[in-house]
Amino acid sequence: MGSDIIPIQRNPLYDSVPDDKRQRSLALEISQGQERKKKHRRRRSEKRVSQISQDITLTRLDRKMDYTATSNGGIALSENSKVHRSIFNQDSAKSPKASGNVVVVQQAYKSYGSGKKKVHVLQGLEMRVPQGSIYGLLGPSGCGKTTLLGCLVNRLKLDKGDIFLYGFHPGTASAAVPGHRVGYMPQELALYQEFSISETLNYFGRIHLMSANRIKDRTKFLVEFLDLPDPNRLINQLSGGQQRRASFAAALVHEPELLILDEPTVGVDPLLRSSIWQHLLDVCSTGRTTIIITTHYIEEARQADRVGLMRGGRLLAETSPSSLIHHFKIPSLEDIFLKLCLQDSSEEDIEQGKLNPVYEDDLDGGQTRINTPGTLPEARGITAELRKDVNPTTGHTILRDSSDEAEIYMSPWVQTSKYEREFSISRLAALLTKNFLRLWRNLGFLVFSFLMPPLQTALFCLAVGGTPYNLPMAIVNNDVGFPVDVNITDVLIDNTPIDLFIEDTAPDLERISVDLTYAYFSQEYIDALNKRTLDLTYYEDFQQGFDSVKEGRNWGLIYFHKYFTLDLILFYTVPTLSDWIDVPDLNVTENSKINVYMDNTNSQIAITIWYEIMRSLEEFIVALTQHYTNITGDGISKLALPIKVHDPVYGSMASSTFTEFMAPGVILTITYFMAVGLTALSFITERKEGLLDRSWVAGVQSSEVMLAFLVTQMFVMLVQIALILVFMFPVFDIPCEGSMAWVVLLTILQGFCGMTFGLMVSAVSNDENTAIMMALGIFYPLILLSGIVWPVEGMPDALRYISLVLPQTYACDAIRAILYRGWNITYWTVYMGYIVTAAWLLLHLVITLIAIRVRK
Ligand SMILES: Nc1ncnc2c1ncn2[C@@H]1O[C@H](COP(=O)(O)OP(=O)(O)OP(=O)(O)O)[C@@H](O)[C@H]1O
């Protein structure tokens, strides 16, 4: 936030400086500290004036440059450019180098992996970058250039060794990294594709805490300086080269002291490469900016002040291109590098006892056989005598300037303000603007996010919990009935109606009662069945009906015996049941039963049919008793069921539906998982595209990034929750006995819980696949174990305990209690819902913060 100057700390490098030199440095630092505050205000106004004039000068100079690509991929310069080059050479030869090395790397070791898979990438690397120079870090793919830059910008940690950036270890309180003093352009494009050029520069300027006016000025200048198109053009509408230059502009926008560029020229045509180098030379021309640039294209680094030729995790040589050319008397840097590699291999061979006689010739001063055709640009840098230094640890040699030894000591560098390490509202505002802008630019996604929750809610209310209907059911009704007006006792012979049931006497009964009205108790029952639930099909005989079930045409068969009515009357009329059971062939007990044969393979359908069969039984019994009274003269109460159900304590007389049971869980799961979906990929995409790296290097704090994501997604989540609740309650009429405010509050809390879970997933996952698998992986366990689709009471004991600590089990019960019992927060069931949700939310946040910090 501010730029306080703090007294300089003791720095290990100073310990190696002679005492009098150190004292001079400290005295200088103290006086500088006092002076700085006085000069601060004056400098700010001067800086603007000088920047504007510098911008004008550079733009003018830029137009003078005339680089062209040669047929062999080299770069040729016109006369104008050479004049211009000499200006730069003078600049870089002047003051900067006297100030010492901006970057010092000592005995750096870095490896990836462990055990047998361990890859040693940096192996005792030594590096010194003088202030105000262009340092070209050259080497083949995989030699460790990106790893080294990652360590410089504090994205990676060394296993062993030291790095000093402006005198301090990267990542420490006083260091330049992370912070506004460094500009970093990673290998990836690392730009928000949906942003325009000006929005991109605005974002990067704001995270560097630049004022709006300054950003505007710098944007204007950089667009002109880097030949960028209209600043309102979106990044994804730019050509590859323009995108690279926009990425370069993003690293330059805050005028960093140190510019770290990871292969800015990779994959771009020679013309654009030359133009990028031209810009580098321009940026460096004032002597204030130091540039470290990596490249595969060794020849282009002739324009650097100093090159580090890297192989196998260490530098083979570190000097100016002109010194190398002078030393080896070979015009091509590429050939020099090749020669150094051969020499290096030979050293290893010598170590292993193998000698390379051909190479020995070369070492002895034999003429090189390597020739480079074509025109090459002039080599830059001060030509110096080289010497071979031996690395005391590894024994490898490095070729460097004879005068280098003194330059390792550094100037008393300025410390970075402590405020840069603190939470910044301005940076948070920049991150929020960026997130909202991204949302806005992905309008399709936003609309989809708003449509999904109501769609899911509507689908749930329409598709789940409704009573199955039109269930095909077979009926075989052989019942011959019984005359209503005939008193059963009248047809008893010797108090025994046996004759009536013998097959050949039955027609007598039918004959006797031919003019009578018959009662068909079986029909009473069939009439009581709900025809919407059951779709009845009549079959002639039992076998046909039974076969229809076996063949899957019906879910069940209801079968009535020929003497169903008669036997039912006898069953209730004859005093002792045993009398009838004893009589062979007259199975009154069995014949008077409604026989049901079910296909129970679909339990929900079977339950529905059973419910219907039992429910219609009640209606049937009432109808039956009326006829029965007529036939037997006995009272109706004889058949009444011995139970009385009073008004329920909670809920209505009509049993609550499965929809009502599931509704609280559905509200919570839709909210929770939509929120997970919003955040689960947030870090990953930005991390993969190198965008997060850029933000971390700029000094953005993990808490700022997390808060910005939470606030942005909260806006989306609140709209989603509103839509879910509107659809669930007013539209689909789910009852609510309690206060809706408590329901809304718990739902929002669950949404936050989902968002923080998503953030946690994205913070710990390396790629989208892992994040998606984690997010989807918890979906089913959470739904199944939280009592959403089935009561927790139905689970084995061990699972119940697991279920109770899950974020949605108590929350679900709490919402059920509020909705259907009208309870409020004072009830244990309700407040436990809030407590468990809040506890999970906090746990997610803590893990996310730890994960971001560890992986930062
Ligand atoms: N995260 C990682 N895990 C394991 N190995 C890695 C990892 N990152 C890099 N490496 C390995 O470390 C070595 C150096 O990689 P690095 O990216 O630093 O090389 P480089 O010189 O920048 O290559 P290039 O020019 O192709 O970008 C390579 O062998 C690479 O495979």
Automatic annotation (TrEMBL):
<dbReference type="InterPro" id="IPR027417">
    <property type="entry name" value="P-loop_NTPase"/>
</dbReference>
<dbReference type="GO" id="GO:0005524">
    <property type="term" value="F:ATP binding"/>
</dbReference>
<dbReference type="InterPro" id="IPR003593">
    <property type="entry name" value="AAA+_ATPase"/>
</dbReference>
<keyword id="KW-0472">Membrane</keyword>
<feature type="domain" description="ABC transmembrane type-2">
    <location>
        <begin position="625"/>
        <end position="855"/>
    </location>
</feature>
<keyword id="KW-1133">Transmembrane helix</keyword>
<protein>
    <submittedName>
        <fullName>Uncharacterized protein</fullName>
    </submittedName>
</protein>
<keyword id="KW-0067">ATP-binding</keyword>
<keyword id="KW-0547">Nucleotide-binding</keyword>
<feature type="region of interest" description="Disordered">
    <location>
        <begin position="1"/>
        <end position="20"/>
    </location>
</feature>
<dbReference type="InterPro" id="IPR017871">
    <property type="entry name" value="ABC_transporter-like_CS"/>
</dbReference>
<dbReference type="InterPro" id="IPR000412">
    <property type="entry name" value="ABC_2_transport"/>
</dbReference>
<feature type="transmembrane region" description="Helical">
    <location>
        <begin position="705"/>
        <end position="729"/>
    </location>
</feature>
<dbReference type="GO" id="GO:0043190">
    <property type="term" value="C:ATP-binding cassette (ABC) transporter complex"/>
</dbReference>
<feature type="transmembrane region" description="Helical">
    <location>
        <begin position="831"/>
        <end position="852"/>
    </location>
</feature>
<dbReference type="GO" id="GO:0016887">
    <property type="term" value="F:ATP hydrolysis activity"/>
</dbReference>
<keyword id="KW-0812">Transmembrane</keyword>
<dbReference type="InterPro" id="IPR047817">
    <property type="entry name" value="ABC2_TM_bact-type"/>
</dbReference>
<feature type="domain" description="ABC transporter">
    <location>
        <begin position="103"/>
        <end position="337"/>
    </location>
</feature>
<dbReference type="InterPro" id="IPR003439">
    <property type="entry name" value="ABC_transporter-like_ATP-bd"/>
</dbReference>
<feature type="transmembrane region" description="Helical">
    <location>
        <begin position="771"/>
        <end position="790"/>
    </location>
</feature>
<dbReference type="Pfam" id="PF00005">
    <property type="entry name" value="ABC_tran"/>
</dbReference>
<dbReference type="InterPro" id="IPR013525">
    <property type="entry name" value="ABC2_TM"/>
</dbReference>
<dbReference type="Pfam" id="PF12698">
    <property type="entry name" value="ABC2_membrane_3"/>
</dbReference>
<feature type="compositionally biased region" description="Basic residues">
    <location>
        <begin position="36"/>
        <end position="46"/>
    </location>
</feature>
<feature type="transmembrane region" description="Helical">
    <location>
        <begin position="741"/>
        <end position="764"/>
    </location>
</feature>
<feature type="region of interest" description="Disordered">
    <location>
        <begin position="29"/>
        <end position="52"/>
    </location>
</feature>
<dbReference type="GO" id="GO:0140359">
    <property type="term" value="F:ABC-type transporter activity"/>
</dbReference>
<feature type="transmembrane region" description="Helical">
    <location>
        <begin position="661"/>
        <end position="684"/>
    </location>
</feature>
